[in-house]
Amino acid sequence: MKKTIFLIVMMLVVALGIGLLPRSNATAAAWQTKVDPWVMQTATTGETEFLVLLTEQADLGAAASLPTKLEKGAYVYQTLKATAARTQGPLLAELDRLGVEHQAYWVANMVWVRGDAAVVQALAQRPDVARISANPWVHLSEVDVQPVPQEIPTTIEWNITKVGAPSVWALGDTGQGTVVAGQDTGYDWDHPALINQYRGWDGANADHDYNWHDSIHTNNPNTAPGNPCGFDSVEPCDDNGHGTHTMGTMVGDDGGANQIGMAPGAEWISCRNMEEGWGMPSTYSECFEWFIAPTDLSGNNPDPSQAPHVINNSWGCPASEGCTDPLILQTVVDNTRAAGIVVVVSAGNSGSGCSTVDTAAAIYDSSYSVGATTSTDAIASFSSRGPVTIDGSNRLKPDISAPGQSIRSSIPGGGYQGGWSGTSMAGPHVAGLVSLVISAAPSLTGDVNTLEDLINETAVQLQTTQTCGGTNGQIPNNVFGYGRIDALAAYNAAILLPGSNWNYLPLILNEP
Predict the structure, then answer these.
(1) 263 CB contacts (<8 Å, ≥6 apart)?
(2) What is the phi/psi pair of residue 85, to 5°?
(3) How far, CA to CA in Å, does 133 sit from each of 48, 87, 128, 432, 509?
(4) Which of 71, 211, 360, 460 would bridge with 317, disulfide CB 3.0–4.6 Å?
């Protein structure tokens, strides 16, 4: 009897002991595989920042069949919000219990967290957590700025003429009725070439509600304390100059001798996603979220009807600076596109080798990625090439190209500067062209696939001898994509579509 009792007791001890022993290596590895190595490394020395992506993500497939951009945008916003509200509760409660700083997002079902290694492990072991990704400060890819002597403006800049935008203006479309957007280092909103196109300016008064958002809330450790624009700025402000230059190429026109933009009749709105050239996946995501449903300055009353038609993104998130998860922004960009918004992204300045399009968000299929050409339609030496190999897709990139070498545009303080080079300068041309095409054919509003296909099929076809992915001699290829944009050809194709501005067709037919 005593022996039987002893055996039973020993069995209970063993059974209980199993629960007290450390987890096996296999079990430990299961949660560690969810965690970005950068997070694991930085969390060992204290608190670090990271993004927690939940297992359940919103299914937005039904958005594609909705007939209008407004319907797409409202559906995407409501579905994303509902998914986040339904699934994030237990995770947020756990974060509150742990007493760690966090911020919830709905643009993708994810939460920003600041925590240590114990917090990382606790979250990674949750079944409702799919992965934990790095959220590093990333520096803006440097553009080559070689300022030229202050010349007398030639009225319309060479790059704008090169792609045929003035010919479209002559036919009556300058981008009117469209809204372009940019997320960048900020914008000098009252610059003479930009103020009259700013949606928040009525000619006498400024209203920044729904027209501006600042995702920079605190100073980053890579810059000196303080910021010339401050934090949570209540009006558009540029602490670097890069954003103002890119917006000038999209819409800039001072009504006089400085016609620097593709779509001077469009309106613009904006978001600051970088502090003095430093951004994070969380700041980029915050801007995308705001663009899907812009809010007032207090962050309240989101309204998808205020969303832009196209967003320019002249920035990247390379693995070399901590974006070791190339898919970190894919869901965010996919969801923005599902809302009927064209997401233009600079391809990067890591050329001239193959497979140098390797940063988020340029690598994604849902991004309309742009390479840079010269004044002679050669590919710029710095322009990144495809195919995309970092995610194993072997995807063709860039999608399209535009002038990106020695570009003159607006800079903060009311001035202008030439000599700027980079795919950052090429992307805004494409964003401006999207505006011109929608202006000519309003029926294309929200139809991202058709807009991109139309611009691709009307581009000036440029072949290459560079054997990147075996596409040399082909259209498209991994150097130019489909070629260099041609605004007039895109316009002529657009006005033949149902719902276009047919009243301009006689002007074309009567040309000598």
Answers:
(1) 165, 174, 175, 178, 180, 250, 251, 432, 433, 435, 436, 439
(2) -65, -35
(3) 11, 19, 15, 33, 56
(4) 360
Q: Which residues are catalytic?
A: 184, 242, 424
**Residue 260, C-beta contacts closer than 8 angstroms, at least 6 positions apart:** 157, 160, 193, 248, 249, 252, 253, 408, 409, 410, 416
Ordered DSSP codes for 132-151: EEE---EEPPPPEE-PPP-P
95-131 pLDDT, tens digit per residue, is 999 999 999 999 999 999 999 999 999 999 999 999 9
Q: Are strands 144-145 and 415-421 parallel, antiparallel or unpaired?
A: antiparallel
Q: Output the CA torsion 496→499→502→505 (10° steps).
A: -20
CA dist 509 → 74, 438, 492, 502, 505 (Å) = 40, 21, 11, 12, 6
| Three-class SS state of 497 | coil
Q: Are 108 and 53 in contact (CB under 8 A)?
A: yes
Cβ atoms 224, 242 nearer than 8 A: no
Backbone φ and ψ for 158, nearest 5 degrees, come out as -55, -40
Cβ burial, residue 21 (10 Å; 0-12/13-18/19+): exposed
Residue ranges of the domains in the chain? 28-135, 144-507
Q: Distance between CA atoms of 419 and 404, rounded to whole angstroms? A: 10
Separation between Cα atoms, residue 199 and residue 251, nearest integer Å: 12
Q: Which CATH class is domain 144-507?
A: alpha beta
Tell me: domain 28-135, CATH 3.30.70, correct? yes
Give CA–CA dist 485/496, Å, rounded: 18
Q: 408 by DSSP, 3-state: which?
A: strand
User: What b/e readout covers 215-249, taking b as 16+ CB neighbours within 10 angstroms?
Assistant: bbeeebeeeeeebebeeebebbbbbbbbbbbbbbb
- pLDDT tens-digit readout, 418-469: 999 999 999 999 999 999 999 999 999 999 999 999 999 999 999 999 999 9
Q: What is the pLDDT of residue 150?
A: 56
282 within 8 A of 135, measured Cβ to Cβ:
yes
Contact 419, 395 (CB under 8 A): no
Q: 49-67 burial by CB neighbour count: b if 16+ within 10 A, else e?
A: bbbbbbeebbebeebeebe
Do 267 and 199 contact (CB within 8 A), yes or no?
yes
Cα end-to-end span (Å), the chain: 113
Q: Following DSSP, what letter does each residue of 381-392 receive, concatenated? A: TT-----B-TTS
The string of pLDDT tens digits covering residues 253-290 is: 999 999 999 999 999 999 999 999 999 999 999 999 99
Q: Whats the size of the chain, residue-wise?
A: 512
